Amino acid sequence: MLETLDLGKHLTKAEYERDLLRYQVQLRELAWQLYRRKRSLVAVFEGRDAAGKGGTIRRLTEKLDPRGYEVFPIAAPEGDDKTHHYLWRFWRRLLPPDEKQVLIFDRSWYGRVLVERVEGFCTEDSWKRAYREINDFERQLVDAGGIVVKFWLQISPEEQLKRFEKRQDTPYKRWKLTPEDWRNREKWGRYDEAVEDMLLRTSTLTAPWTVVESNFKWFGRVKCLKTIVNAVSKTLDYKPADPVGLAKKPRS
């Protein structure tokens, strides 16, 4: 599946600026509808190291009311999180929609079938069982009125290396690069296998995966925002206004 992706997809600067504005403003309008209807959007971002998750999330939230969204950067479990079932730390972060309507996970419960599987942090029985547990978990979210949108951001090994080297050479970006990032490159094939299994076993009608070609960051960001806008619009049966189209209309 990953090998068939066209990672050369791109946008011009004009297309990027136009489409980014369009979907950011539409998402803001949809977030208001979520608030009014007491619904919630759960957006999950997974992907290779340096695939652009953080930059995409920044553009996603740029025009949202800060009172209505929360971003959860997920790392290795600590404290009480280590003493409970791995899904517990996500359940407790799922706030009611009258508090936050947009919940964004920068990495998520899929760590069980990705890094924990590849690095041997859990048993084979545990990560194999997790596919069913995760599907049940997401189905419960949807049954409770949530809209679950999941993204896998894919880049090539060559593009990842370029981004790693740029981080290493840029003082204010150097903190993003860790020895673990370099080690993970050596397991590229094993991670590909885990990702393929994850996409196959956990892309459901209620919570499908969207694979994002992210070698060109502008294209990846716009694809993510467009997918979210379309998913929320369809679920709510509500079409937001097109701010770009309105701007082009002549005044009467």
What does this structure look like?
The chain is an alpha/beta fold. It has one domain: 3-Layer(aba) Sandwich (Rossmann fold). Helix content is 49%, strand content 13%. It is built from ten helices and five strands, in the order αβαβαβααβαααβαα. It has helices spanning 13-37, 53-61, 88-91, 115-119, 124-143, 157-169, 179-185, 188-202, 217-236, 243-248, and strands at 40-47, 69-73, 102-106, 146-154, 209-213. A five-stranded parallel beta sheet has the order 2-3-1-4-5, with helices on both faces. The protein is globular, with a radius of gyration of 19 Å. The N and C termini lie far apart (50 Å).
Question: What distinguishing features does this structure have?
Answer:
252 residues, alpha/beta, five-stranded parallel sheet, 10 helices, globular
